[in-house]
Amino acid sequence: MTKLATICYVDNGKELLLLHRNKKPQDVHAGKWIGVGGKFEKGESPEDCAKREIFEETGLVATDMKLCGVITFPDFTPNQDWYTYVFKVTAFEGSIKDCDEGSLEWVPYEEVLQKPTWEGDLIFLRWILDNRPFFSAKFTYTENSLQDHSVVFYE
């Protein structure tokens, strides 16, 4: 089975808005600092999903987004491959609201890679922070541990 999702990093020019997943019971992301985003709803494009998820989780309206890459997570949840579109948002409107999935925090660029997160996130977050070209990547996990990864960058 295939799942489609987005991961979105809101960037204010000196910090990324990260979500500390500390509120949902039985959360696969519990304790980790991640971007906002989530699963596609019926009929959504990647951009539709990203904008909706950003608004639902943060209260912000994305006005300038860039698709940075696509990541495949084979069998990330039992019998489900996840295909995830990664966005960087550099312009937005509105005010941050409380999120029912965790605590939102602006994290300075130099501290982003120090936050507890998935091993793979530490890899592709470097690509986003370094403004690398569009990427297609695959991150394979076994029991929440990164086993392998690969990437192709497109100029």
Structure description:
This protein is of the alpha+beta class and 155 residues long. It has a single domain, classed as Nucleoside Triphosphate Pyrophosphohydrolase. Helices cover 18% and strands 48% of the residues. Strands 1, 2, 3, 4, 5, 6, 7 and 8 form an 8-stranded mixed β-sheet that branches. The longest helix is centred in the middle third of the chain and has 13 residues. The termini are far apart.
List the helices and strands and how they pair.
Blueprint (H helix, E strand, L loop, with lengths): L1 E10 L3 E6 L12 E2 L11 H13 L2 E17 L2 E14 L9 E6 H4 L6 H11 L4 E9 L2 E10 L1
Parallel strand pairs: 1-5, 4-7
Antiparallel strand pairs: 1-2, 2-3, 2-6, 4-5, 7-8
Q: What gap, in angstroms, lies between the N and C termini?
A: 31 Å
Low-confidence stretches: none
Tally of domains: 1
Quaternary organisation of the protein chains: single chain
Which CATH top level class fits?
Alpha Beta
Report the radius of gyration as a whole number of Å: 15 Å
Task: Kindly state the number of beta strands.
Answer: 8
Give the count of helical stretches: 3
Calculate the mean pLDDT score and round it. Answer: 94
- Net shape: globular
The profile of the biggest β sheet is: 8 strands, mixed
- How big a fraction of the residues is strand? over 45%
Can you tell me the CATH superfamily?
Answer: Nucleoside Triphosphate Pyrophosphohydrolase
- Helix and strand succession? EEEHEEEHHEE
Pfam family, one: NUDIX
Protein name: 8-oxo-dGTP diphosphatase
Cofactor: Mg(2+)
Keywords: Hydrolase, Magnesium, Metal-binding
